[in-house]
Amino acid sequence: MGHAGLQLVSKEFMQQLCERLTQRFDCDQILHQKDDLSFLRVDKDKLESTLVYLKTHEGFVHLSFVTVIDYIEDDIFRLSYMLHNYESKTDLAVQTEISRTASTMHSIHHLWAQAWTYQRELKEMYGIDFPGSPRVNDEFVLEGWDGPPPMLRDFDTAAFCEERFVEREGRESQDVKQTMRDNLYPERGEV
Amino acid sequence: MFELNRLSEAELESGKYTKIWHGPQHPGITGNMSLELTLCGDDVVECKTHVGYLHRGFEKMMERRTFIQNFPIVCRIAVPEPTFNEYLYAAAVEELAGIEVPERAEWLRCLNLEMMRLASFLMWLGGASGSFGLRTVYQWTVTHRDYMLDLFEEMTGARIYHMYITPGGVRAPLPEGFTERALSVMNGIEKLLFEIERVVLNNYVFKLRSEGLGVIDPGMVDDYGIVGPNARALGLARDVRKDSPYLVYDQLDFEIITGDKSDAYNRTVQRYQEMHQCISLIRQMLKQVPTSGSFHANLPNVLHWKIPAGQTYVKAECTRGEYGYYLVTDGSEYLRRITIRGPSYTHAIAVMEKLVVGVNIADVAGLMVSLHTYPPEIER
Amino acid sequence: MNDIDDKLKIDLPQAKTHSPSGPPGDGTGPANSVLENAGLSLEDQQLFCDAAPVPYEPYSPEFIERFHNWIRANSMWVLAFGTGCGAIELNPLMTSRFDANRFGIQMRPTPRQASVLIVAGYSSVKTLKRIIRSYEQMQGPKFVIGLGICTINGGMYWDSYNTIKRLDRYIPVDLYVTGCMPRPEALLAGFMELKRKIKAGECDGANRYVKDFEWYKANQKRVIKKWDMPDYNW
């Protein structure tokens, strides 16, 4: 029950699809998370052609989202494009890596008309530039923001809040683990 | 194929156009967002949407909290329909942690979600008729929604933010006598829906104003990522509950409802039929919910809960369409990245900017409500 | 003046009126000073009045002021601005089940006709700017209800980079209704308490705003970086 439980057709379908894509575009790090969900990784300059091929020849016509994961320890941004195929009812996430400093990426607004919103948000939240994307430099959710892009891992929001906003006095924050340890198991010392 | 319609500076200065803000403080919007409209007389020529009035930085906040600390806050992301966030977060965490949810919990979760869909549709229906002037219907539907909120309070302890669906199961079973009370509320809502069919759907003024308003072409659907009843009204049989069944939807008996045209009137009809479908699903579930068995799986010590590294994407069908959570973990006690993709992300920005061109200023509110957008889930 | 709604009053613990913990109440009252309106462009500056706000004086025979307070308390018209989460429970409040209309409470679409501003929940910085504009456009005497814990101390968004943590640093608040979110009955109890306070003459938020105008403006400008509006938007 739950999220698994689909017919075997989808599983074979996804495996064969990933083989075809690997032959054409050199994918690696293929992960079949569920019968209808797979992840794979391509190089940055092959990403656009992979997306075009998936959209026109394999039926992955719906773009669910575009998102970014910040791997600060490896100094890369990992972009994730999630596509959906309505015929075979499967999801495929195409991922790629770009460098974390001076990050730019090709825009895909000519493939999907909704993509410019995602790219605008990523520019504001992570600082990734998508040259040519409509209104990519407009503010999306933040107004008059003067700090670094907020979703970066090295942006400390608690310190920013203390410095920018005034708190009401008398508020104390407790560490959850320590409090529960003291209240529930005071004699034990270490849980 | 895609162009942003923008007037030049010279045209804007010419005195022929007025710029007004269908702004954040306005009774005619579905939440807190604004449209910057450029009008020529009474008709809209260009529109720019502005969101961000409700931005709280959820994705960043959730990275700073442990997995169990996240579950009380996650329901506040989509304010009028909170339960789907709880379910999707729980489903994503369970999948990556490898936790098996007992069957009774799945039935209870499904019942909670369908009731939430019905309550959300009721509020939408009030707004949809109110935006064309039928303000009494708004009083009726919000009152009946309040009876549903009473049911939620019995079931979960709270009216709006239930915090009922937790990773592992649900927090409590159904109280005694819940089935009879729920069925009587369902009967009341069904009677209300038949009245609404007379008063709203067969209403001359409503039909006159909403037919032909905000027509979505079939070519726009995949380009703009239009999901949910907006797309089903066009005849596309796409429903996450049938395509990738989750919870107990594969054991329930229902068909995907489709229409043949997607304008404001047909979308209202589509959602009206989906409300009847919700009532029928709730009645089926109330008969079949198991009354014994465990309703929560055993979790490891949640204060030191580390989930193995991985990534997943879970989807559910909320009233507006496909709602998705993308979760990435890296083996520590905190999640690495969570992306929340609400259906209003495209409906309220890209689709709205395209559809509102040429519409009379009096109908802009009606168009916005007919797309059923909720701003909080756009900017989280 | 006793009236029928006094029977519905419940005993709430005596709430202290919150005063800003900042410069003392005598303030640098700008009754005769001129506003700069530096955030606007030169052509726009001419469109906005540069006189500072003035406090409203109570009527001189005391019974007339009490009469006016009774009127204000029985016709609290609320500005229809759903600023955050709490707007969800305003819908049931105003419709047939809980029916705030029988207490004289209505939703008005424009600030010129409203006397109560309900700040429903958290305020992001972008919304705070609009709240300030709407508040300044309302005509005194005007009252602010802070709904939910997010207006008191930031609530669950205590570490969010985009929400404010204390509402009464930016506009004067007359009453807080705590909860997340408060039930409509709690909100009605809040309205009854606000009525009592108005009748007792304790709600002078508008005058406090004028008296400590510089302090409020400094706080607002510290948080709102894109100040493209007049300094006082009457």
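The first strand of chain B starts at residue 18 and ends at 22.
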